[in-house]
Design a protein that fits this description.
The complex is a heterodimer of chains A (233) and B (98).
Chain A: H1 2-41, H2 46-55, H3 59-70, H4 75-86, H5 88-96, H6 108-113, H7 117-126, H8 133-162, H9 173-185, H10 189-206, H11 213-232
Helix pairs in contact in A: 1-3, 1-8, 2-8, 3-4, 5-7, 10-11
Chain B: H1 2-19, H2 27-50, E1 51-52, E2 55-56, H3 63-78, H4 81-97
The chains are: A mainly alpha (233), B mainly alpha (98).
Chain lengths: 233, 98
Amino acid sequence: MGREFFILSYKNTIVSGFKKSIPVIIGYIPIGISYGILALNTNLSPYLIVGMSVFVFAGSSQLIAVNMLTAQAAIIPVIMTTFLVNLRHILMSASLSLHFNKTPSKLLPFIGFVITDESFAIGNTLIKERDNKGLFFLSMGLSAYLGWVISSLIGVLIGRYILNFEIPVIDFVLPAMFIILLIMQIRDKMDVVVSIMAAILSIIFFFIFPGNWNIIIATLSAAVIGVIVENAI
Amino acid sequence: MILGMTLVTYIPRMLPVTLLSKVKLPDTIISILKYVGPAILASLLAPALFITEGSLNITLNNNYLLAAIPTFFTAYFSRSIFTTVFLGMFYLYILTLI
């Protein structure tokens, strides 16, 4: 029975990972499509737009990058902002690593690639009571990844071949997504205080520093002030 | 640019899980990193809502700012990206009709 049992068990794990990715994919579809259309409206090449989804695979960073490129930002601030936006994945990655002590080392670099806010949120709540934790997470993450790439491809195709429409509300996808992602980050009162501080600083620095540096400087200032206040209390 | 973006998104999420984080970071660094999530999203959001065509706009003509209010409540209660993004666009659409 041994070998067949394990093959069946792997198969079940993969199928169940796929099933758990479905709500994530449903969330990715409108954002991926909007991303494709939005990016096309800024005259980026279709290959660059889909290529970003294939290689970068970071929804918020890609939307931000597109936003910054529209505002004629330089490449270094785009990469720096991408880095800071995704810095939180360090903590998600470190926290997920607690579950993968029995996972083959070969799988870990692939698991790392599919860590997103969404896969982390789902993985962190569902992974505990499972066998083959690594395989489950990888299956869920890879399904979501394919959903993201296909959604942005559809967005590009819609924008390029079907309609060249400009719906003003599409531009609100980005602020609306920041709102929900911000809400998801808030755990306590200090997070609220730091967020308000960062928001005010970001607006002030917008008028002082060129090229979107306001985002990086406001974030680091607010985070450092937050820690100082926290230690003072 | 894509290569740079790929590296800066892949390395932070791959390294800790691969190294199983056996190194313990100083507490201060951990505290700062903990605030980077909310701080950076607030830094990104604020200019998008408060700045229209390069200048500060805190008026009733700022539809993004007005639409953001129900969108915040939607995000808070739904905790869903999908619901928030769709209803957010709907609120803005209603405001453009008024």
